[in-house]
Amino acid sequence: MEVANTIDAARRAVKQARKQGKGIGLVPTMGALHRGHVSLIEAAARQCEFVVVSLFVNPTQFGPGEDFNKYPRPLDQDLVICRAHGVDLVFAPTAQEMYGRQNLTWVDVEKLTEPLCGRFRPGHFRGVATVCAKLFNVVLPDRAFFGQKDAQQVAVIRRMVTDLDMPLEIVVCPTVREADGLAMSSRNQYLTAQQRGQACTIYRALKHCEDRIGQGIRDAGLLVAAVAEVLRQVPGVEIQYVSIVDAETLQPVDPVSGEVLVAVAVKLGSTRLIDNIVVDAGHS
Amino acid sequence: MEVANTIDAARRAVKQARKQGKGIGLVPTMGALHRGHVSLIEAAARQCEFVVVSLFVNPTQFGPGEDFNKYPRPLDQDLVICRAHGVDLVFAPTAQEMYGRQNLTWVDVEKLTEPLCGRFRPGHFRGVATVCAKLFNVVLPDRAFFGQKDAQQVAVIRRMVTDLDMPLEIVVCPTVREADGLAMSSRNQYLTAQQRGQACTIYRALKHCEDRIGQGIRDAGLLVAAVAEVLRQVPGVEIQYVSIVDAETLQPVDPVSGEVLVAVAVKLGSTRLIDNIVVDAGHS
User: Is A37 a catalytic residue?
Assistant: First the structure.
């Protein structure tokens, strides 16, 4: 496994693989790899002969007061995980390498970046889209792999790729969960033991919504209220949003029909957690 | 010479050339080709084994009330010119092909897009950067060729390529001029015979500025006034701007020193014309 810290070194390694006729798969991550990331790496390895994992805590997707500084950076452990799962190239640039002089160029995806997390993290998706454009231009992958847990990110990146005619395919892999249902996230390690115990309520609230839809409820207001009611069983939880939206456009759907995304963001103490499920509500 | 009207067809043709080990050169144009474009095609042919010319009047770079509808589209004549100059592939998509559904994704280059033409054509450079990103992603050229006449466009595209790590080189070719000094432009054909006769004053004003710098004048205000004085010899001319700026950052330079861009935009009747020269003012 090669580890490249510079754009040039990454390009050289990928070019070599490309010359050998290998398909290139990219798993863009901020490191602190967990089983969710591993599932992306495994999917990439099944679909591509040459697997690249990028490890980069991207400063431009964090807002002021967010957790950029405390975000975990266990590089050695991440490299062990990559090596164990047959990764061919790790691209782990510094912020200086990626944004060597003041960045003036931004990729903005309108509309899709406004609802849900966009309301609470202004500029976040602009940073995500921009760094993904950069990573795609460095690695030129045939496929890039993202987790369904970050559903809005997936919608934004998919749209960017389509709108800008980027020559790659976006592959979305299912959310990987702990035994109690909590979605895998590098931020779970911020939780106290008590918060960790309570955090599984998020998934329970989402499944409750799925049950209610299964029982025939289609009123979005009622369904959102049902999710919030379950979430509020956690003392001190701060609900940022509970939304039922079209999975592609992220626009509210009411009455609920077709494939919908039920998405939630909460804060437990200072830790912000998001989760979602896709439910097929059928057509009346 | 192949003519591709779809993104897929263009990609197939380029892929074929790439497989044969050919370097790819792209000349992005809005058609209505003149000798300025031909000089770009010739430069591309010298530096690349496979030359692609795109012909696309890009709607997203025109503002309301601008000349999108009347912009000349002499496709057959453009194809004759391309064929005569050894172009390998013409990519001539429809607007429907390039923006098939509502475009939500924009490439924004801050700061460089604000002065000069940016003040008079809001959104213009966002449209230019976005369509160039798309064309680069379709053709994946090793080099793309632009004319110095559009100096601000060159600065914006160069910066986009650097900031987003796009894997290509931007090559800038000198402005090609008519015998009387008028910079070649597809918009020159809008001019009446009288306006055409007067239009050479623009280059004369720029050369006058160069002379004044050569005589040791470094006060930007004086130099700008000298350019404006020459321009005002044309009855009814509307001066949009006369600016002396750093050629890379496009920021005003006063006193003038180093390599500066002397840039002008005027309207003759309803026709908007731009021109510029780069002058080395040395260092005091």
Answer: yes
